[in-house]
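Many introductory courses stop at the sequence. We go one step further.
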Amino acid sequence: MNTKRSQALKTALRRIRDSPLRTEPEDQLVDLVIAAEALYLNDQPKDRSELRHRASQRAALFSDDPDKPQIRRFIQSAYDARSAVAHGGALDVKVLRMRDGKRPESVKQFVNNLDAFIRAAALKAVTLVASGKMLDWQGWEAQMLDSAPPVS
């Protein structure tokens, strides 16, 4: 595994590990979206435009959940919430969407849902690496969302 991707996986795992230590759900959310970026965007060059779109597409592709469009919306919701928190805005629970598309009752419920999703993705990534494989995101755009992610 190349050094950049190895470092990205370590970053994701560290953020996942540290997230429950945060006292505020908004801070946990920031950690978990950073973990998602490290997992799904570890091959991005300096031009990091459209990160929300890329992260949500890749999360859907990598997920075993058959409802790919809903996973995309879920990760987009998390990304938007993180941006609101990171830029000093208010986090409105009414705009958040869970994996199943429903509104959460609280930010904490949304964060718990995101935590479970990101932990499952990290476990899948670690399992791939342990078996000598790695995600090759370079060609992912050509794949249909209903196909498996490219693995080399």
